[in-house]
């Protein structure tokens, strides 16, 4: 729920202030593609971590697949040398040191903390895994924070010691280690521990490969004989909770109460019967979960449906999915979406965006998408930073989370809906798809205005006015109405596109590709050797013949005649952009205009006005937008596509 243009404000019922921010394990595990090494020397250097796993497994008599599978679930083999996660974990094995100084939040939120025993607030004192591991291998604890080889040895020693404590042999059969792996999860929740162990064993079964943050080329060969263990949920959960059975979930209710202004902090509804649930919105909290739990219990503040904890992926539900939470900054999107907050800060992805959180979130989203028939694509599963501003005046106040470091490619792999090319390289449509680990564009603002951020993998690609790197960035007149140029700031969305988003091609020049973006041609570098976008198929919209320009909207409202007498009618507010004749924008769905009377506190769901006017949802800029179906023609880009001119009308 990040917004850097102004301090945090109290939330009331009015739209411009409503801002805040199961599948089987098999569907959650897909190997990650990466660039290959360039020469033999580089290849040899890149194998160091791979060799560390082999050596440690041999030394402590732990099956290498078990050791590597656990490390993959702990960190995806990343090191972040010397930098702890929010739970104090270090290195590829994410060994926890309770004495580690936690990452400092970018800004103060005045946390007081929730009452003791509140659900989802985390364990009081994490186990001293790192110090115990250091004792087991006889090296100083501080070495395990920065030395990958020592960290891996420590993790192997811990696994072996746990296996002995359980009275089990140091077998070379991975299946014999299931209980030790479940114990390694560090959670006392039996369901969460079982899910963790089964995820590890699914990684071992299917194998994995990736280039780590330290440029290590690591491969876990598939072991098809390994199988996860069949388990039954052991714990009970509140009747209000809507979660897949393998997730650890709790309930902390958001209040529906009358306030001085009107009421808060969500709307009673009867979804999907009164309003179809079309979207799932991914947020990050820009605060700790303690602070967010206080916010969600305040009737004058914002609300959201679920919170996901960083340390272990624990899920807390606050609002029933049939009801409409106030989370996106748009009443229209709120009415058609489910909002999920993830504990973290967009400028500190390594500390907060944990693998356990990604996996828990993906399980939850997959469960909800199946329940409500929500397509698993980036026009239906999107970030708070992709929510369209409902009115022209609200554009500068829209939020930027979860930011350019959220790994959308990995997230969709976990959803079981991997992002990939669906057409040839000369298709009239492209999907943004940089290699997350290798693609490291420059950002500023992580530790202060103008201060360069540390190089880091990114899901976002920057746009220029011409096909050259020194050309000005695309300017967003809605976000910066005074004409100020876009910047490289980590929260500046004015010239950015994101992994999984799909756009219509406007031109090509050498290594550069142009797309239609906010009414203009926008260029990004897209070299054939290391592409940042791939060919896509699907549908686009373009103004009907004879129309030189059509309006673009941030919400889909009913037509005027659909409103009954006395019902407070919303006023249309076209966005300050131009969609001109000849331009094309990708659409993946259509919606009907709806509105709800939220002017007073009522004990039952408010009536919904359903119009007949159809709108196409389009990928217009970094954010989504809507155009009237009556204003556009639909153009199809086939899977076997030629150059842009070959599209059929």
Structure commentary:
The chain has 649 residues and is α+β, with helices and mostly antiparallel strands. The strands form 9 sheets. The protein has a 6-stranded mixed sheet with strand order 5-11-10-13-9-14. A 5-stranded antiparallel sheet has the order 20-19-18-15-21, with no helix packed on it. A hairpin with a 2-residue loop joins strand 18 (502-509) and strand 19.
Low-pLDDT windows of residues: 2-44, 108-125, 641-649
In helices, the fraction of residues equals 10-25%
How many separate helices? 13
Beginning-to-end CA distance, first to last residue: 40 Å
Largest sheet, order of strands side by side?
A: 5-11-10-13-9-14
Give the tally of β-strands: 28
Mean pLDDT across all amino acids: 88
State the shape: globular
Oligomer: single chain
Structure class: alpha+beta
Strand content: 15-25%
Instruction: Specify the biggest β-sheet.
Output: 6 strands, mixed
Report Rg: 25 Å
């Amino acid at each position: 729920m990040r917004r850097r243009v102004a301090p945090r404000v109290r939330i009331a019922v009015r739209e411009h202030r409503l801002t805040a921010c199961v599948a089987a394990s098999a569907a959650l595990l897909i190997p990650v593609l990466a660039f290959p090494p360039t020469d033999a020397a580089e290849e040899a250097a890149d194998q160091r971590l791979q060799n560390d796993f082999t050596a440690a497994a041999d030394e402590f008599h732990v099956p290498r697949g078990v050791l590597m599978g656990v490390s993959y679930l702990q960190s995806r083999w990343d090191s972040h040398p010397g930098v702890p996660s929010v739970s104090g974990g270090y290195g590829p094995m994410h060994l926890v040191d309770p004495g580690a100084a936690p990452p400092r939040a970018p800004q103060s939120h005045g946390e007081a903390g929730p009452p003791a025993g509140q659900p989802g607030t985390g364990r009081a004192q994490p186990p001293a895994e790192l110090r115990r591991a250091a004792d087991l291998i006889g090296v100083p604890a501080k070495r395990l924070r920065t030395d990958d080889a020592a960290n891996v040895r420590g993790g192997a020693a811990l696994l072996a010691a746990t296996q002995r404590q359980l009275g089990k042999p140091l077998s070379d059969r991975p299946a014999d280690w299931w209980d030790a792996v479940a114990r390694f999860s560090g959670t006392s929740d039996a369901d969460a521990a079982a899910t963790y162990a089964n995820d590890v064993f699914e990684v071992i079964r299917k194998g994995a490969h990736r280039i780590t943050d330290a440029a290590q080329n690591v491969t876990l060969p598939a072991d098809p004989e390994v199988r996860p263990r069949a388990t039954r949920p052991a714990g009970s959960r509140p009747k209000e909770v809507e979660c897949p059975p393998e997730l650890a979930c709790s309930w902390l209710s958001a209040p529906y109460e009358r306030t001085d202004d009107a009421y808060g902090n969500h709307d009673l509804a009867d979804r999907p019967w009164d309003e179809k649930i079309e979207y799932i919105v991914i947020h990050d909290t820009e605060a700790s979960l303690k602070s967010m739990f206080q916010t969600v219990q305040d009737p004058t503040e914002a609300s959201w449906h679920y919170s996901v904890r960083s340390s272990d992926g624990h899920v807390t539900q606050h609002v029933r999915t049939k009801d409409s939470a106030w989370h996106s900054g748009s009443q229209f999107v709120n009415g058609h979406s489910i909002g999920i907050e993830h504990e973290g800060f967009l400028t500190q992805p390594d500390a907060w965006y944990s693998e356990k959180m990604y996996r828990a979130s993906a399980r939850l989203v997959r469960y909800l998408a199946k329940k409500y028939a929500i397509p698993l694509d980036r026009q239906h599963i999107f970030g708070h930073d992709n929510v369209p501003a409902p009115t022209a005046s609200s554009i500068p106040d829209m939020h930027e989370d979860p930011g350019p470091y959220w790994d959308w490619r990995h997230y969709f792999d976990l959803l079981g809906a991997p992002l990939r090319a669906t057409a040839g390289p000369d298709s009239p449509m492209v999907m943004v798809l940089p290699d997350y680990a290798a693609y490291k564009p420059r950002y500023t603002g992580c530790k202060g205005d103008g201060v360069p951020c540390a190089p880091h993998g990114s899901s976002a690609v920057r746009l220029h006015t011409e096909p050259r790197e020194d050309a000005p960035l695309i300017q967003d007149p809605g976000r910066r109405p005074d004409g100020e140029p876009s910047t490289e700031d980590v929260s500046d969305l004015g010239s950015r596109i994101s992994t999984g988003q799909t756009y219509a091609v406007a031109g090509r020049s050498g290594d550069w590709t142009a797309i239609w973006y906010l009414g203009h041609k926008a260029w990004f570098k897209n070299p054939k050797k290391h592409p940042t976008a791939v060919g896509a198929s699907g549908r686009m919209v373009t103004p009907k013949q004879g129309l030189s320009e059509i309006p673009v909207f941030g919400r889909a409202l009913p037509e005027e005649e659909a409103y009954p007498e006395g019902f407070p009618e919303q006023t249309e507010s076209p966005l300050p952009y131009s969609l001109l004749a000849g331009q094309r924008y990708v659409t993946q769905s259509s919606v009907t205009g709806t509105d709800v009377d939220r002017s007073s506190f009522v004990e039952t769901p408010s009536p919904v006005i359903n119009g007949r006017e159809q709108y196409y949802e389009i990928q217009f800029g970094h954010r989504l937008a809507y155009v009237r179906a009556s204003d556009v023609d639909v153009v199809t880009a086939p899977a076997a596509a030629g150059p842009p001119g070959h599209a059929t009308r």
